Amino acid sequence: MKTLLNVIWLIFSGLWMALGYAVAGLICFLLIVTIPFGIACFRIASYALWPFGNRVTDRRDAGLASGVGNVIWLVVAGIWITLGHILAGIGFCVTIIGIPFGIAHFKMIPVSLMPLGREIVPSSAPAAYPHYRWG
135 lies in a domain? Predict the structure, then answer.
């Protein structure tokens, strides 16, 4: 079922979103200083192609630099991209058939809002063990 959803998603939304993220990634690579944002754009582009069967997790090794980069991303691009996902999600949810695709847009909001320090993993991958301090 997720393959069918991914193919329909690719036709109606995924290809255009992935191309947009890829172009943004290329621009970030041209502006040398923004290469970490370019890497994040390409990571989001791969997620935008096939969102069903994948999920976003936080990276355990993300540090202060990721937090600072996320604040910069939030101000420069994150808010606008997130508004686009919200509007597209609402547009898809207007029809009953489009609800899974609207939910996929809503699922992309956290990674498009703050992409640094996150990774895309298959949904079948086990969730990371919570951080507990033992002794």
Answer: no
Q: Count of residues for the chain?
A: 135
57 within 8 A of 121, measured Cβ to Cβ: yes
Count of structural domains, the chain: 1
Is 53 in contact with 10 (CB distance < 8 Å)?
Answer: no
- pTM greater than 0.70: yes
Cβ burial 57-76 (10 Å sphere, 16+ → b, else e) = eeeeeeeeebeebbeebeee
* Within a domain: 9: yes
Give per-residue pLDDT as tens, 38-84: 999 999 999 999 888 888 888 878 788 888 988 998 888 889 889 98
